[in-house]
Design brief:
The complex is a heterodimer of chains A (452) and B (85). Chain A is α/β, with parallel strands linked by helices and 452 residues long. Chain A has 13 helices and 22 strands. In chain B, 46% of the residues lie in helices and 13% in strands. Classes of the chains: A alpha/beta (452), B alpha+beta (85).
């Protein structure tokens, strides 16, 4: 007689809490394939854990975002935010789609240049630009977004020294009705500092003032804030034309659009609450179109959105290491991905699910990573099916920030594959080995040997 | 072998009610089967022999999940308190 499949015995307490009238489903559908490729076969071929990126998802999301803005505004340009994910393969998908590069350090600048992005298509943001970085950016006619007065004076000095006309914009911070107010980057709008900076740039006569930039915050769940930001930048553009007869070429509204991940502590899932690209586009473009800017002087609209363009395209698959019970009887599942790889676990209640149908039985579970650290929690409290040691899981929406903020800590960083438009897997970053780490180290002669 | 407390009500569909605490619980099919076997006074050896013959599982895996299951029953105070007497 054929044996029946085994499902481990369980007993669950029935809690008669207040039922949600919105009835959010607690059933967790497994995710077995990405772009037609089995996750299990990818783990077998490339190891566990494994970051998986979907090229078709990146392109689809980009096209959707571009359509949302370009169908409402005559001149739209995206610039790929390198810090969100600067894997060359990812950057180049965006560049193939037409995005410029937006960088915030000398390292990122060089990475964009090495990828072949022309200097005039690199936007150089951030508070940290060395003299050498600035010299390079001026030479390559890159767009330098000035963060503070020290940087402005440095650029004026360099323009004289190099006899060049640097192309500059200023970054402007402002009150857009959100908390916390981001005021550490750029010049403030309300106290007149931004207007002062613009006047000093015009007075210097050596700089080409070509744009106005703001970046109001991160993970913005409201479109109204962008409407206010766009209106305030438009006011400055109008004032510049009125006073100096100067027409700016672009308004850069930055990024910060929320992705569909669910923030920790949020009541509703991000998939239900995140505004769409159309919502953001409507708010921003309507503010610009209805401003006092003359119709034939409407500036190019630049967007630096990172997270919302890449989060959905990234997956992290891996293996269950063990199960245990905590002191209060709750289930704990230990997986081979920790916060060293999944940095965003600090912010999100990540969508983690099995890759195969396991069981309809769910249990209140804490999911821990493999690090020997108490903070290594991937999900603090999740209704999760009973995975066994060796079973596989996949975490969805991990494309943003994880492979730039990840740490080589306790474990080595794993491989990253990208699935092309035909669903074929390409290794885009090799997993680290002991040699990767040791090749950077120099052990002094007298510390090379010991006897135990 | 552990013993299930006598006043615990267990339905055929796996619904469990503890009149002492007022809590209710839900068992999956194998959980229910094991509870029945324990209630029938089967020894662990007999119980595991029956279930290993019926289900696609090895002894080691079964042991692990069985003891985890019993630990949960104990956690929920559904087992009789063992005394030294």
């Amino acid at each position: 007689m054929e044996k029946l499949p085994f499902e481990r015995p369980t007993i669950q307490k029935i809690s008669a809490g207040i039922p949600s009238k919105h009835g959010i489903s607690r059933k967790l559908e497994p995710l077995s394939h990405i772009d037609g490729l089995s996750i299990k076969s990818l783990i077998n071929d490339y190891g566990s854990p494994l970051f998986i990126l979907s090229e078709s998802s990146i392109r689809k999301t980009y096209k959707e975002a571009y359509r949302a803005f370009s169908s409402r505004y005559p001149n739209v340009q995206f610039a790929w935010s390198y810090k969100t994910n600067y894997l060359n393969a990812v950057c180049n998908v965006f560049h193939q789609e037409g995005a410029w590069a937006e960088v915030v350090s000398g390292f990122e600048y060089d990475k964009a240049a090495a990828n072949g992005v022309p200097g005039e298509s690199i936007i150089f943001n951030g508070p940290d630009k060395s003299k050498e970085n600035l010299r390079k950016a001026i030479q390559n006619s890159s767009l330098i977004h000035i963060d503070h007065f020290d940087e402005l004076y440095e650029i004026i000095h360099l323009s004289r020294e190099m006899d060049e006309r640097p192309k500059v914009a200023i970054r402007i911070n402002m009150d857009v009705g959100i908390y916390p107010k981001w005021d550490r980057f750029g010049f403030n709008f309300e106290n007149g500092e931004a207007w002062d900076a613009l006047n000093r740039i015009k007075a210097s006569k050596n700089l080409d003032l070509i744009g106005l930039h703001t970046h109001i915050g991160t993970y913005m769940m409201t479109t109204q804030a962008y409407k206010i930001a766009a209106s305030k930048l438009a006011q400055l553009a109008v004032s510049l034309e009125k006073k100096h007869g100067h027409v700016i070429q672009y308004i850069d509204i930055g990024g910060g659009f929320a992705s569909k991940n669910t923030l920790r502590g949020a009541y509703y899932p991000g998939t239900d609450t995140t505004p769409s690209f159309d919502d953001f586009a409507e708010a921003i473009t309507s503010a610009l179109m209805s401003s006092e800017i003359k119709p034939d002087h409407l500036p190019m609209l630049i967007l630096e959105t990172g997270r919302a363009l890449i989060d959905d395209a990234g997956y992290l698959a891996g293996t269950v290491l063990a199960n245990k019970r905590l002191s209060d009887g709750r289930r704990a599942t230990i997986i081979d991905t920790g916060v060293n790889l999944l940095f965003t676990a600090f912010w999100y209640e990540h969508d983690i699910r099995p890759i195969e149908p396991i069981s309809d039985q769910m249990e209140d579970t804490t999911i821990y990573g493999p690090l020997c650290m108490n903070i290594d929690v991937i999900r603090g409290n999740v209704m999760f099916p009973l995975l066994k040691k060796g079973d596989h899981y996949v975490v969805r929406r991990v494309g943003a920030y994880n492979t730039t903020q990840w740490m080589q800590f306790i474990n080595l960083r794993p491989q990253i594959v990208m699935l092309d438009m035909k669903g074929k897997a390409h290794l885009v970053r090799k997993g680290e080995t002991l040699d990767t780490i040791n090749s950077q180290e120099i052990t002094p002669e007298h510390l090379q040997n010991f006897n135990l | 072998m552990p013993k299930i407390r006598k006043n615990i009500a267990i339905s055929e569909s796996g619904f469990v009610f503890d009149p002492l605490s007022g809590e209710s619980y839900s068992l999956n099919p194998l959980g229910l089967e094991i509870i029945h076997l324990i209630k029938n006074g089967q020894s662990y050896e007999d119980l595991s022999e029956v279930l290993l013959a019926k289900y696609e599982v090895d002894q080691e895996t079964f042991d692990r999940y069985f003891y985890d299951f019993v630990a949960t029953l104990k956690q929920f105070n559904l087992l009789e308190v063992e005394t030294d007497a």
